[in-house]
Amino acid sequence: MMAAMFGAVFGFAVLSLGIGVRKFWRDVSPGRATPPALGEAARDALALTYLDGGHGRGCNEQDDRFTLARRRFHHLTFYGFMACFASTGVATLYHYMLGMHAPYPVTSLPVILGTAGGIGLLLGPAGLLWLNLRRDPKRGDPAQRPMDRDFIALLLLTAATGLGLLAGRDTGAMAMLLAIHLGVVMALFATLPFGKFAHGIYRCAALLKSAIEKRQPNALQLGSD
Question: How far is 186 from 27, CA to CA, in rounded Å?
Answer without folding.
Answer: 32
